[in-house]
Amino acid sequence: MISAARSLLHTGVTSVQGPLVFVRNVRGAGLYDRVDVITPEDAIRSGRVVAISEDRIIVEVFQGTDGLSLQGTRLRLFDEPVTLDVGPGMLGRVYDGLGKPTDGGPPIPARARMRVDGNAINPVRRDVPSEFIETGISAIDAMNSLVRGQKLPVFSGSGLSHDRLASNIARFARLRGTDSTDFAIVFAAIGVTFDTADHFRREMDEYGALERIALFLNLASDPSAERLLTPRVALTAAEYLAYHEGRHVLVIVTDVTNYCEALREVSSSHGEVPSRKGYPGYMYSDLASLYERAGRIRDRAGSITQVPILTMPNDDITHPIPDLSGYITEGQIVLSRDLERRGVFPPVALLPCLSRLMNKGTGAGMTSADHPALAAQLYSSYAQAQRLKLLSSVVGEEGLSASDRDLLAFLERMESEFLDQGDERRTLEETFDIAWRLLAQLPDESLVRLADRQIAEHIVAHRHG
Amino acid sequence: MSEARVFWINGPVLKARPVGSLQMKEAVFVGEERLAAEVIRLDGDAVTVQVFEDTTGLKPGAVVRGSGLPLAVSLGPGMLGSMFDGIQRPLSTIASSHGDFFRAGVEAPALDPEQRWRFTPKLDVGVAVVGGTVLGEVPESGNTSSRILVPPGVSGTLTWIAPQGDYKGAETIARLHGESGERQIAMVNRWPIRQPRPSARRLSTEQPLLTGQRIIDTFFPVAKGGAASLPGGFGTGKTVLLQTLAKWCDADVIVYVGCGERGNEMADVLDEFPELEDPLTGRKLMERTVLIANTSNMPVAAREASIYTGMTIAEYYRDQGHHVALFADSISRWAEALREISGRLEELPAEEGYPAYLPTRLAEFFERAGSVSTLQGVPASLTVVATVSPPGGDFSEPVTAHTRRYVKSFLALDKVRAQARFYPAIDPLQSYSGYVQHTERWWTSHGGVRWASLTKNVLALLEEQSRLEKMVKIVGRDALPAAQRLVLVCAEIVVEALLRQSAFSEIDRYCSSEKQMSMLNVADDFLSQSQRVVEAGVDPDTILTLPVVRRVQRMGEDIANDDLEAFSALTHDISTAFSALAPTFAQNDDNAA
Ligand SMILES: Nc1ncnc2c1ncn2[C@@H]1O[C@H](COP(=O)(O)OP(=O)(O)OP(=O)(O)O)[C@@H](O)[C@H]1O
Ligand SMILES: [Mg+2]
């Protein structure tokens, strides 16, 4: 029953619009069924049925419709949705955006065929993610902690160093107390340049990490409709690795913005009523069907942690792509052009960042009992300092009090000593130490988020030291 | 039953040619897998159906089978402590039968048909009963007992009632003789989700829903039977606040609807609620809670239905005489589901692609909140609090704007506060509550005689602060006279002292009304003392250096609900500190006393 190909080839293409092919008089097609589209030159492209009406069906062709003709194009329908063959040996391989190996290696011995759209996890079977991942990056570990099973995107801007941050996370990430990482990495490139993808691969190679990575590549030059499938294929592989092989999988998707643009393109070919900025009204649900595939499931060994990267058009966080993503994911790491310009790496703009699962994975027994208060104080002081800096840039620095100057110095040092760490990996203890040291420069009365005991234990020592 | 044959499929929406007549809003089943669905439009030769499940693989020619009945939920004992999807399928049961992932076409009864409940009759044969009359009681969960009622619209003389004993939900526990003849009544009954359940009459809202959250109870109260919205951009704290309300508010029954939001958030509720105790009754929170989860990746039509499923369940408990609170996160995701279905129907869009009937639907939904006298004449209430997720955090967008028209309490979450990790990030200057007057009487009779005037003072101070901050941006802080700098100093302290309340602080996550009043008094005392020292010539900025200021700002998280004497000690220390600042003033004060 697996590959129920119908022998019949259909003709009757009445129209080709963007990535869509309209076909007359096709009986028996099921919604989202897989379709082979056979070009006049007998090349096979994959697609799927996306709408059905009385006298015609609409087929979305992943590899695009260039070169198709009304007469010469034929279709073969399958009685199943689009699937991916999964099996042992998926790691250490390179695939195209539809999940076919392209590295010249052997085919994947198919243990199962999994539907690329996945199935929603029953919420009662979800396990609340709570295992702290030490990423080695201070801005994340101390202030926006990542836990296994979380979806924590990077909101970046074009040209910012998000790729470098992502490959550092991929290299550094481990559970606390372990010296090496046990993460399998699924990397999905969507509409990025060959250089970006290749750079990531070489980085990983350099650190001997290639054999725990599966790379799915849809490059900028690849057809845009294929982009709708690439993250799904990659996540399907991740689900196999996590839930069948019991691995902890870190999924890096770059760039979600290209995915959304492909979605908009396909939607407009359908003539759908657009929502904000021309993106379809269902983009929230569509993105959720990707992001919600992160998580942990009770009684299953593996997990899926997602670090998707998206570039905010015009650095605008209210643009629908970051906005809808932020409404679905469990926080976001936002990069700042200003910090990047000043040479801070990673250029993390702290204020708009958030990790919603932080309180699940930090505190006594997990990181340190005082970690949550430390993060709260850092945020409160940093926000206050930013406000002050803005104000003093308007009314001048003359009127600043001594404690105001302390705050501005704190801001300065947060950037130069805490945020700016280059490619060095910091342990959580090292990060904490820097943070307490910087807070110790502020007077007690501005450390309202810390209890007296915390001041006595962590702050006083640094003042005298 | 009528049938139809599918000829058009677009995502969760399909069209079919009927044989016989299907009704508008009729529950139907599609195809061999019997996908749950509902009729949403009737045209001459076609019915349009929205499907509550994944339609992948569905083919033209599939049969749509009518049920003859509108889409309904089962109401009876056994709902408390459970989690259902948007059309009331029991998620735990489905997980045990079908595993970790959803599949389409799963049918499972909402309430376990084999479960027996101990029914104790409350009436004798021969009594005339009408809809809403209590037939008997069933201990359901914790201290909540379900009252088994004559269903609305049914009346007659009781000809038989079951003796005390253990019965299944579908078993007959009473028989009536009415106008339309003999009628059997079971404990479990169905009710259409889109039709409000009747009550005898509406009462005015007078009691506050005590939430244990200072910014709500003290400043922007929500009444029992009221409606409130919580708008805010992503990450501003809507869900945490809503969950906090669901945990600590003094309703008898909580219905929490996760409408198009995250799976992990529902897992979190399932994880925490069975552990936490209701501060008033000591029973586990889960025992008073019904959860509806239709997460963002679950079918969009079922998301649209989910808030009505939750509402109908909430009304069922209200009709038993309970104070019920319905929390919906988020109403925007519901509106988007409506928009998506409408778009697939190619309806003419109004604002932002939303259908023109969006405001009507919102109004109907929020109108189901209220304080009522039930059919049996008992006061009860249904409070609704819904989050709103405006695109780009822009409150002028249609869902936020229309919701605002139908709620009286508007708790606006603000990005700047959230970014500074100031929680709850409710902006006191953008928020308002139309229930202040209603609840004033309650406070007056509960030790809060000065409540109204104190809260007004604080809010006035905050308004003054915002006005002055605009001036500071132009002229600088030093240019302000001492009295105005004092406003800035005090406002900052008071905001930190009263409005900040972490949902994760064991001590502060729930603040009793006594503690709220004590804190308000401390703040007031602090304000008047500061004013007096500044009038006596002390520079306002020196107030900031007083060590006692830290204690005022941290009093919420440092002083527990059962340690109210600590507030007297704090008041005393405030006096001492201020006397040290301005001894003359202290002497004068002593002389006066
Ligand atoms: N009252 C609170 N106390 C402590 N922390 C809070 C509080 N409210 C929010 N937070 C913090 O802010 C984070 C985001 O809050 P939340 O998930 O409720 O946002 P949201 O408004 O529901 O966002 P979205 O619209 O994307 O769902 C939480 O994970 C938590 O860390
Ligand atoms: Mg939320």
List the helices and strands and how they pair.
The complex is a heterodimer of chains A (465) and B (593).
Chain A: E1 5-10, E2 13-17, E3 20-24, E4 33-38, E5 44-52, E6 56-61, E7 74-81, E8 83-86, E9 93-96, E10 112-115, E11 126-127, E12 132-134, H1 138-141, E13 146-147, E14 154-156, H2 162-172, E15 174-175, E16 183-192, H3 194-206, E17 213-219, H4 230-244, E18 248-254, H5 256-269, H6 283-291, E19 295-297, E20 303-311, H7 320-328, E21 331-334, H8 337-341, E22 354-355, H9 358-361, H10 371-395, H11 402-419, H12 428-439, H13 452-464
Helix pairs in contact in A: 2-3, 6-7, 10-11, 10-12, 11-12
Chain B: E1 3-10, E2 13-19, E3 26-30, E4 35-42, E5 47-51, E6 63-70, E7 72-75, E8 83-84, H1 91-98, E9 116-121, E10 128-129, E11 134-141, E12 144-149, E13 156-161, E14 165-168, E15 172-178, E16 181-186, E17 189-192, E18 201-203, H2 214-219, E19 227-231, H3 238-248, E20 253-259, H4 263-272, E21 289-294, H5 300-319, E22 323-329, H6 331-344, H7 358-367, E23 370-373, E24 379-388, H8 398-406, E25 409-410, H9 415-419, E26 432-433, H10 436-444, H11 451-475, H12 482-499, H13 513-535, H14 540-544, H15 547-553, H16 555-558, H17 565-581, H18 583-592
Parallel strand pairs in B: 8-21, 19-24, 19-25, 20-21, 20-22, 22-24
Antiparallel strand pairs in B: 1-2, 1-6, 2-5, 3-4, 3-6, 4-5, 7-17, 9-11, 9-14, 10-13, 11-12, 13-15, 15-16, 18-23, 23-24, 25-26
Helix pairs in contact in B: 5-6, 7-8, 11-12, 11-13, 12-13, 13-17, 15-17, 17-18
The complex binds adenosine-5'-triphosphate and magnesium ion.
Residues 238-239, 261, 329 of chain B line the site of magnesium ion.
